[in-house]
């Protein structure tokens, strides 16, 4: 289940992705949001956007904050795998 793609109903669906997420179901479609100060990327909440994404997160009118990739998804995932230890503290 990817709540941001399919919509969420309860907070527990979002907690699977990250402990600091909650289900925002006031707007339609409902989706998982990160706590204030964190940004969504790859179903995780990042304290700051990683090197393979733009440093400034994009925030929409509903308060959804997300990091935008500046590289392709495959390269970003490979970077995450190679730098797993260094990135561990960057997201929950």
> Approximately how much helix is present in the residues?
25-40%
Number of helices: 4
Largest sheet: 2 strands, antiparallel
**Rg, nearest Å:** 13 Å
Q: In what order do the strands lie side by side in the largest sheet?
A: 1-2
Secondary structure class reads alpha+beta
The number of strands is 6
Helix and strand element order? HHEEEEEEHH
Quaternary structure type: single chain
Shape: globular
Q: Averaging pLDDT over every residue, what do you get?
A: 83
Number of domains: 1
- Which consecutive residue ranges, at least 5 long each, have pLDDT under 50? none
What is the percentage of strand-forming residues? 15-25%
End-to-end Cα distance: 18 Å
Protein name: TIL domain-containing protein
Overall description:
The protein has 92 residues and is of the alpha+beta class. The protein has one domain. Helices cover 25% and strands 20% of the residues. It contains four helices and six strands. A two-stranded antiparallel ribbon has the order 1-2. A two-stranded antiparallel sheet has the order 3-4. A two-stranded antiparallel ribbon has the order 5-6. It is globular, with a radius of gyration of 13 Å. It starts with a helix and ends in a 5-residue tail after the last helix. 24% of the residues are buried. The model has no long low-confidence stretch (mean pLDDT 83). This is TIL domain-containing protein.
